[in-house]
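Lab notebook page, bench 4
Experiment: in silico fold of construct C2
Operator: M.H.
Input chain length: 149 residues
Purpose: comparison with the prior construct
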Amino acid sequence: MAAGTIAFDLKIRDGSAMYSHITLGTNDGAKAIPFYDAIMELLGHSRFHGDEDKGFGAWGQSDGDQVWVLPPFDGKAATIGNGTHVAFIAPDRATVRAVHAAALALGAQDEGAPGLRPHYHPHYYGAYFRDPDGNKLQVVCHNPENEAE
């Protein structure tokens, strides 16, 4: 690993996963599922489970890291969390730009254009947007530009 590169590993010291899955609520699966299909494909994650007609989907690995989008189990409307967002790792800065552009083209609300955020660390390159339900999402690359592109 090159100097200045920060490794982000979702495993804790004993080797067990830090999390099982992330769930984001939706009130319109017909909009949300194609939205996530598109951005997850750009990030290299395919949908392994779900049904657009029933309004739910899951991306990642069936036996590993997962992101689920579905209506809340309590039957109430999905709402967004103030101060909460999910950040997806991109392999390079070009992917950050591509995902952000695709998200906006699919109706996402811009919450921060792609760019360096050196207040986090010198190579932190990210972009923010809200999905069709208002969930705040981020796509981020932690690598120096010359190693990531």
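Observations: Helices lie at 29-42, 93-105, 145-148. Confidence is low (pLDDT under 50) at residues 1-13.
Next step: discuss at group meeting.
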